[in-house]
Design brief:
The longest helix is centred in the last third of the chain and has 22 residues. The protein contains 15 helices and five strands. α12 crosses α13. β2, α4 and β3 form a beta-alpha-beta unit. The protein has two domains: 154 residues, Rossmann fold (3-Layer(aba) Sandwich), CATH 3.40.50; 114 residues, Zinc Finger, Delta Prime, domain 3 (Up-down Bundle), CATH 1.20.272. It starts with 5 loop residues before the first helix and ends in an 8-residue tail after the last helix. The protein has a five-stranded parallel β-sheet with strand order 2-3-4-1-5, sandwiched between helices. By secondary structure, the protein is α/β, with parallel strands linked by helices.
C-alpha cells in the first residue's frame, strides 16, 4: 500500500492506464521515503493484465504478490551482498532481448543505483541507450546527483518527498502495528519520512539499540557508547534515525520525571534508567545536546568527532548528584 505521494500515483496511473508509458524512470529521494515500494507498485501495474491496472486479481497480479512473476527482475544495492555488479548488469542486458513470458512487458527494478561502481553504471547506460520495446526499467537512488548524468538524462526523473503528517500517521499505524496515538506521536518526530518513523517505532531494525545505549549511558560506559555509535558511521540516515529514537527516550524520561504519563518511545525501561541517572534539568540539557547533534549531522559534521562529542556531552552530567 502506498501512502501519500498522490502526484506520483497519478503519474503511474497515467502511464499505465493512459498509454503514456516510457522505457525508464528514476525515483529519487532520501532513504525511508518508500521509493522501492512505489517502484514495486508501478511494476505491478505495468505487468497487470486487468482492465484498470493494477487490478490485484488477475493471474499476473497474483504472481507478482507471490514474488513469482517471470517478467520481473529485481536487483538491489542494499542487499546483504551488493547485487549491482557489472556481471549482473550484463546478465540483464542479455536477458533484455528475450521477449516476455506472460504479457507484453518485462520490468527491471534496480534499486539504490548510487551504489553502482563505474563499470556497472556504464553497462547500465548502454541498456538505457538501446532498450527493447518490451522493457521498462525502474531505478531508485537516494540522490540523482550521485548517478552518471547520462543515466539520469535517459530516465523520467520522479522525486519522492516526505508525506503529510496525517498520511504518515496512517502509514505508521498500518505498517508499524501500533495504535493511533503512538503512530501520531512518531509521525510528528519523523518529518514525513515513513521509514524513519518505522525505525522509531521498531528500533530493533537499527544497527544499534537506543534502549541498550540508554542503559550504557546510565552506567557511564563511554567506550561501549562510542563503539555503538561507530556502527552507525557508514549510514547517515540510520544515525539520524537513531538520534531521533534517543531523543524520544530522553523526552519520555523528562515527561515522566515531571509527572506526565504519555510515552513517545514506549520504552519504559530506557526511560527509567535515564530518570535514575539524571535530574529533570539534566534531561532537558541532554535533549538540547541531541537536537544540536542532529543539526550538526545534517550539516555534514565529521562523524567520528560528532560521536565523541555526543558521548562526552551525554555522560558529562552523569556524575552530578541526581535529585
Amino acid at each position: 500500500m502506498i501512502f501519500g505521494n498522490s502526484s506520483v500515483i497519478d503519474l503511474i496511473d497515467r502511464a499505465v492506464n493512459g498509454n503514456k508509458l516510457t522505457h525508464a524512470y528514476l525515483f529519487y529521494g532520501e532513504k525511508g521515503l518508500g521509493k522501492k515500494a512505489i517502484a514495486a507498485h508501478f511494476a505491478k501495474a505495468i505487468l497487470c493484465g486487468g482492465e484498470h491496472r493494477p487490478c490485484g486479481v488477475c493471474s499476473s497480479c497474483k504472481k507478482f504478490e507471490a514474488n513469482a512473476h517471470p517478467d520481473l527482475t529485481i536487483l538491489s544495492g542494499t542487499a546483504e551482498k551488493n547485487e549491482l555488479t557489472i556481471a549482473n548488469i550484463r546478465k540483464l542486458k542479455a536477458d533484455a532481448v528475450v521477449f516476455p513470458n506472460d504479457g507484453v512487458k518485462k520490468v527491471y527494478i534496480i534499486s539504490d543505483c548510487q551504489k553502482m561502481q563505474a563499470p556497472a553504471a556504464n553497462a547500465l547506460l548502454k541498456l538505457l541507450e538501446e532498450p527493447p520495446e518490451h522493457l521498462v526499467l525502474l531505478l531508485t537512488a537516494d540522490d540523482r546527483a550521485n548517478l552518471l548524468p547520462t543515466i539520469v538524462s535517459r530516465c523520467i526523473p520522479v522525486g519522492i518527498f516526505p508525506v503529510e503528517e496525517a498520511d504518515c500517521a496512517k502509514a505508521l499505524e498500518a505498517l508499524g502495528g501500533v495504535d493511533a496515538e503512538h503512530a501520531a506521536l512518531a509521525a510528528k518526530s519523523c518529518g514525513g519520512n515513513i521509514g524513519r518513523g518505522l525505525a522509531l517505532l521498531q528500533p530493533e531494525n537499527l544497527p544499534v539499540s537506543p534502549d541498550d545505549f540508554c542503559m550504557m549511558l546510565a552506567k557511564r560506559q563511554e567506550y561501549g557508547m562510542l563503539a555503538a555509535l561507530s556502527k552507525l558511521s557508514g549510514d547517515k540516515q540510520a544515525y539520524r534515525t537513531f538520534l531521533e529514537a534517543l531523543y524520544s527516550r530522553f523526552r519520555d524520561a523528562a515527561v515522566l520525571k515531571s509527572g506526565g504519563k504519555r510515552l513517545l518511545s514506549g520504552s519504559k525501561e530506557a526511560a527509567a534508567a535515564l530518570i535514575g541517572s539524571f535530574t529533570t534539568k539534566q534531561l532537558l540539557e541532554k535533549l538540547r545536546v541531541l537536537s544540536h547533534a542532529a543539526k550538526d549531522l545534517d550539516a555534514n559534521a565529521n562523524i567520528a568527532v560528532l560521536s565523541a562529542w555526543i558521548t562526552s556531552s551525554l555522560t558529562g552530567a552523569a556524575e552530578e548528584q541526581v535529585i
